[in-house]
Amino acid sequence: MGTLYIVATPIGNLADITFRALKTLKEADVIACEDTRQTLKLLNHYEIQKPLVSCRSHNESIAADRIIELLQEDKSVAYVSDAGTPGLSDPGGALVHAVREAGFEAVPIPGVSAFAALMSVGSFPGRSVLFDGFLSPKAGKRKKRLEELLERGGNFVLYESPHRIIKLLTDIADVDPERLVLIGREMTKFHEEYLQGSAQELLNDFSGRESIKGEFSVLVSGKKKR
Question: pTM of the predicted model, to two decimals?
Answer without folding.
Answer: 0.90
